[in-house]
């Protein structure tokens, strides 16, 4: 791919963290990101922090995005942050979407999740954000 | 017809793909198949209702979905809802319980008691239902992957409290095929998962004949992106897969079909939904009678909960969800459902507070007390529009079922991820249509507030301490139980699974010995393995 393409396509890891089984939104976002021209690696359900961190490293992604609907985003992100850092992935764009109460946004940002897209966010806004923020 | 052809009106196609006319007459009813499938309430094919007198005799059961934290917290919420006039319970379990993990499993960390109540052993069931009369209040349990264990715990708890299990009513969701399509609380691969559902149906037919071991869910398939017609058609395909599994064991359809039940969604166009239910009722009766040769009317009944509406609620202007909920309840009442539950207005944000749960309950009570919805059976019956659309929806569902069968059947299509890919593509198209304004959604793409206020939603608090309390409780049970009996019982579960026998008797023995959800699940995973999700776009 890199040999033929003049510019590498943006690679997005879209992960379903924890035990939450609500994947309708994640799959909709995955399709939107593919339509936006990104390479999407969708993990499927029940990813542990270790798995997310490992896949992000192995797949050489530019964006690490989580989709969380069942409320365990803060404990999960607290565990994921040091693992991503240990893998040298702190320069990647970390994002999270889903059922994320406004009162948790500061905590998510301080954990390194710069892109926060709660329920109600527009698909094109997510794609635009990625384009603007991937170096 | 000619008038319509010349009309300049914009064409309207409902979500199921059927064109909606500006006017219907007797000619439309005749053209759609006439009144052959209408009949009378309580009579085949049950389009107008499975009972003759319906709500005039007894209003629908009100069964709000509830459960959080540890069993003590949930017991209090149950008692609150019952004190406010709720007539049934619908238990929410936390995710670790639903996928067969004990509270002290590392994977359970951060998830204990978050979206439902936490259950490890029979002790938790004893606490959760303490003081609740199980003859008066029927209990429905929303659990699938670990449903066999939950059913065993419920029966064991009731028996211990002196109830006659042969007379015990109640429902387990226990519809694993839809979990592979949406909702995602699977544990085992597809084939042993269906086998386990068969075990529960067979066991209940023999030991707890009034208990409903399965509630087949179109609901979550709809939430995942299916149209209303697909929702019902796929649910029927799934129910047939379970029926085939049990019939292959030698049971007659009339031995179990009367205890199969259904769970359907209620958001969307009012008439399309009502016709979906009327059409589905007669189609299921026809399938049971003609395809499965059922003889008992009860085997042909589409017994259901018409509920939720989550997919129709919005994050924007959440108070409008109270209004939507009232219309959804109206749809549910007009559909002739046996049981009703409503998503609360704050469910796009949080699990319901006492306040929002009570509003949902009162919404249903207003329909009964003030709006006359219980006075007359099938009040929309005979409407040219409703009868025409009911016939057309039935044809549409039959066509979807035939297409599914022609492609190899629902089990194959789910195993391959084909249904998942199809409904997910539809969900994506719908999201695009909402964002472009093509599919109107008040507060989202039209009638937005100039300045969106801070959303007036109170969050249900998550108690971080619940996890510690639950793990301590599990450790206490482990210390007090007869560990030799537990080890023997767990070995029995593994042996039954390896032998390909019905595992329910062994699971019942294990839960009575206070073996935990996680311990029993591990025995089954050792034999069955774990499901690997097909990722397909």
Please, could you describe this protein's structure?
The complex is a heterodimer of chains A (135) and B (537). With 135 residues, chain A is of the alpha/beta class. Chain A has one domain: Cobalamin-binding domain (Rossmann fold), CATH 3.40.50.280. Chain A has five helices and five strands. Chain A has helices spanning 24-35, 49-58, 73-86, 105-110, 123-133, and strands spanning 11-15, 39-42, 63-68, 93-98, 115-118. A five-stranded parallel β-sheet of chain A has the order 2-1-3-4-5, with helices on both faces. In chain A, helix 2 crosses helix 3. Chain A is globular, with a radius of gyration of 14 Å. Chain A starts with 10 loop residues before the first strand and ends with a helix. Chain B is an alpha/beta fold and 537 residues long. Chain B contains 23 helices and twelve strands. Chain B has one domain (19-436): TIM Barrel (Alpha-Beta Barrel), CATH 3.20.20.240. In chain B, helix 4 runs parallel beside helix 6, helix 7 (147-160) crosses helix 22 (504-512) and helix 11 packs parallel to helix 13 (270-291). Chain B has helices at 2-6, 26-31, 54-57, 71-83, 95-98, 122-128, 147-160, 176-181, 190-207, 219-223, 228-247, 253-256, 270-291, 297-300, 320-335, 354-369, 384-406, 410-415, 418-436, 465-480, 483-499, 504-512, 517-528, and strands at 12-13, 19-20, 61-62, 65-66, 88-92, 138-142, 170-172, 211-212, 214-217, 260-265, 304-308, 339-342. At the A-B interface, helix 1 and helix 3 of A face helix 5 and helix 19 of B.
Describe the structure in brief.
The complex is a heterodimer of chains A (135) and B (537). Helices cover 39% and strands 19% of the residues of chain A.
The residue fraction in helices of chain B comes out at 40-55%
Instruction: Name the beta content range of chain A.
Output: 15-25%
- Which regions of chain B have little confidence, pLDDT < 50, spanning 5+ residues? none
Distance between the terminal alpha carbons of chain A, to the nearest Å? Answer: 19 Å
- How many beta-strand segments of chain B? 12
How many E-type strands of chain A? 5
Strand content of chain B: 5-15%
Average predicted confidence as pLDDT of chain A: 95
| Count of helical stretches of chain B | 23
Which of globular, elongated, flat, extended, rod-shaped describes the shape of chain B?
A: globular
Spell the H/E element sequence of chain A.
EHEHEHEHEH
What is the CA-based Rg of chain B, rounded? 23 Å
**Unreliable residue stretches of chain A:** none
